[in-house]
Amino acid sequence: MWFERDVSARIRRLAGQFPALVLTGARQTGKTALLRHLFPEASFVSLDLPSAAHQADTAGDEFLQAQPEPLIVDEIQYAPGLFRHLKRVIDADRHRMGRFLMTGSQKFQLMQSASESLAGRCALLELDTLSLSEVRAGRGKKTPEPAEFLWRGGYPELHRAPDLDPRDFFTGYVATYLERDVRQALHIASLRDFERFVRACALRGGQLLNLAELARDVGIAGTTARDWLSVLEASGQVVLLEPWFNNAGKRMIKTPKLYLRDTGLMCFLLGLDSSAALERSPFIGAVWETFILGQMLRARQATGTAARIFFWRDAHGVEVDFVVEHEGRLRLIEAKWSAHVAGGREVLPLLKVRDQLARKAAPEHWIACRTARPHLLPGETSVRVLNGAEFTEWFAP
Prior knowledge:
By secondary structure, the protein is of the alpha/beta class.
């Protein structure tokens, strides 16, 4: 079963505008399959093979000469020395586009290498797991209900094989991730400690990051916790959402919020055995909030919008889940698992911040919940209640 990705059109467009393209993202998000699907005429080489990685890293010229173009290079982070050879080959024919299409699972390292060697020559994109709209387009009537999708998550294999138990998939995924990515990025004495650290991050999903508390609970040093969190971020497993603040305005909280990138992995790490267990869980609000952020991140990649996503929390504790900044205006978004939002205290923070923003506020703000019918919040003309499962369709700053 093939799932069309919303970002496909943008990948094709950028491949026609740049000589090289790097597609990053966590393992098993479908990076390689997507590039091979979009560019079936391209040759392919995987640097997962140690011999291929060694040749690409130490004898880049010979490696590139042996591969017909256009060329898909899988897991290019294993051969950082290849980038300087790519620069020389590209500059020899600067205006031929779409020559090198690369994937990688270590975003920060790849971005650094690409920016140093391929500045102006390479487009960079990130691929997340499947969105609910992508699954719906591929599975039609067999699309899982929202709670089932949150519990299952968006890794393509879990929807290609819907009978596969997510717990079996994630057990192997976590073990493989720890072995392949973590051992290469860090010298960790105990992988068990690192796995406990990942689970502790899941417990704090949607919360302000407190590295000292996180380190203390796992029993590691604060500097170690910072290094490990950087690896999780670089490999596409977590995202740190920064607060919005205005230097000319009131003092804002400057600590980021911690989110996992995939709700299915989050549920697995939280020990939730079913979608019914998720719905009964005190974590349902945090998982839904994670899902809404994921919807926005995927839409931003697909459209290439310059909109930036933050959260709002001031020194008085007034908090709004998300702030989307675009062209100088701020759109406020609250994530609510409820099926019905009528107003009252649960939307009071959003209304308070909207009024405080005055002319900086966007014309419309959103409550992303499970409503069956999008509608304006009663008594309000600038707050719309919409279905978070269809959120991608609404995210057009």
